[in-house]
Amino acid sequence: MSALHALVEASNAVAATSARNDKVAILASYLAEVDVDEVQIAVALLTGEPRQGRIGIGWATVAGAIKSLTAEPSESTLTLHDIDTAIDQVAETRGGGSAAERQAILQRVFDLGSAAEQDFLRAVFTGGLRQGALGGVVTSAIAKANGVKVASVRRAAMLLGDLGEASEIA
Known about the structure:
This protein is mainly alpha-helical and 170 residues long. Helix content is 66%, strand content 0%.
């Protein structure tokens, strides 16, 4: 299972550079190491949009979860699957009391994450991920990581309607 901290480190490295080719190289190196069954999750998070799409998490839910945090763990154990499962749970939570339940789910995730992971997840959940590597750069990184042509990845993503699924196929 791929650790969330590795994705966050790659994202932070991408944000710290302005050269497109360097961004592609950083992401390609990271994606080449991600387990095949987690690549869709990784691509979705790197593009700032969970694979589940819009799931009803806003600033208020995230702020409430963060306000209730306990101390930061000495070592994060969060994996990409942990995040994906939590997002699934939030997406499935409906009805009376759902806002509080969503906040509780997020709080459990934030409680297990490092400060850098918490910042990354906050940005993803609120639509504020600013790393300079959205769809186009990630598409190029997928192609480079898998030794395929960028045009092939673009075409697959267009036909599938999902860059994450295209990355898994690549």
